[in-house]
Design a protein that fits this description.
Elongation Factor Tu (Ef-tu), domain 3; binds flavin-adenine dinucleotide; globular; single chain; 12 strands; 8 helices; alpha/beta; 6-stranded parallel beta sheet; disordered N terminus; 26% strand; Rossmann fold; 297 residues
């Protein structure tokens, strides 16, 4: 029962399993590609920023690797989640996947699903996905809460924010968008051209800025590209309205494995993108309630 004092919890829809056709795999950068998924006649209802799950066990080509990894890790391999890079008004659902590598001495196990999604010659294949999930979405009353969305993303963390940005613009929401993307190099910049087009088509509404950590001469890329990590000074410059903005931050954070290793070696886990960004935002006085976050590697 709900009363005026205790509002009803939002109704959460159970994820539904769909069998979809992969129509195309399009490489966006040297290591990241978009899979376009055709849901046929199934009703597709999702919010920008949500994700789908994919069970790696459905692919016969991955059975031996999954069994090996399960033996090594002592637990069943889990579903992998992928945010939609498409927006709900677009005709095909799309997910954008970053390839994963096995780096001897650095990574503990070979990756399971991402390389297969990108290189397993899936166009034309029917695959099973579960959707749609995740609270990394705009609240219905977003325009009452803010007039400025600040997107702070790293690497493939740009995927759900790209969907949110396209959706907000398509719906004509009265919001300004500052999009701040952190990458290693120019070649790693995801959706660079699409973001440029959105910025050009929406002057005064969309502002895009990139930071690159591993380029030496970033000035040759123009005024919208800065050197280094997303630091406090940059956030201070870009977010004058720190009491009223809403921040959507997505990217890598300290993983459970980092924490386990830190415990074993008795050395604190090194803060990653998310911990660093949250630290800066808190120091600048952005209330935690104004920061929505999603983390993945
Ligand atoms: C909500 C959400 C949304 C996401 N959206 C996206 C997206 O849009 N695009 C995208 O590319 N990814 C996204 N991800 C990440 C994605 O779900 C996968 O984690 C990613 O693709 C890697 O999966 P994999 O099977 O290829 O690699 P995994 O098998 O998961 O391995 C990845 C890395 O983790 C290491 N590892 C795995 N298990 C262990 C262990 N037990 N101990 C130590 N190290 C270990 C491996 O050595 C490897 O380096 C999202 C994740 C979440 C939670």
């Amino acid at each position: 029962m709900s009363t005026a004092e205790t509002p009803a919890a939002p109704v959460r829809k159970r994820p539904v399993e769909y069998e979809v056709t992969v129509t195309e795999v399009r490489m966006e950068t040297h290591d990241t590609g978009t899979l376009f998924l055709d849901f046929g006649s199934a009703p597709v209802e999702y919010k920008a920023g949500q994700f789908i799950n994919i069970d790696p066990h459905q692919f016969p080509a991955l059975r031996a690797l999954a069994a090996f990894l399960q033996e090594q890790k002592g637990r069943r391999e889990l579903f992998r989640s992928y945010s939609m890079s498409s927006a709900p008004h677009e005709p095909l659902v799309a997910i954008t996947v970053k390839d994963e590598e096995f780096l001897p001495g650095l990574t503990k196990y070979p990756p399971l699903l991402a390389p297969y999604l990108l290189h397993g010659r899936l166009p034309g294949a029917r695959i099973k996905v579960q959707g749609f999930m995740g609270p990394y979405t705009l609240p219905d009353d977003v325009q009452e809460r803010t007039d400025h969305l600040v997107h702070i993303v790293a690497g493939s963390g740009g995927v759900p924010n790209f969907s949110i940005l396209k959706d907000a613009l398509h719906r004509g929401l009265k919001l300004r968008h500052t999009v701040l993307c952190s990458n290693k190099t120019w070649a790693d910049m995801l959706f660079r051209e699409e973001l440029e087009k959105l910025e050009a088509a929406n002057p005064g509404t969309v502002k895009v800025l990139h930071t690159l950590t591993r380029e030496t001469e970033e000035s040759r890329f123009g005024p919208n590209v800065r050197k280094g990590r997303i630091g406090q000074a940059l956030l201070e410059e870009l977010i004058p309205d720190r009491q009223t903005c809403l921040v959507y931050a997505c990217g890598p954070a300290i993983s459970p494995w980092d924490r386990r290793k830190a415990l074993e070696t008795r050395t604190p886990a090194t803060p990653r993108f998310m911990e660093a960004v949250l630290g800066h935002l808190h120091t600048l006085g952005v209330d935690d309630k104004r920061i929505k976050r999603e983390t993945y590697g």
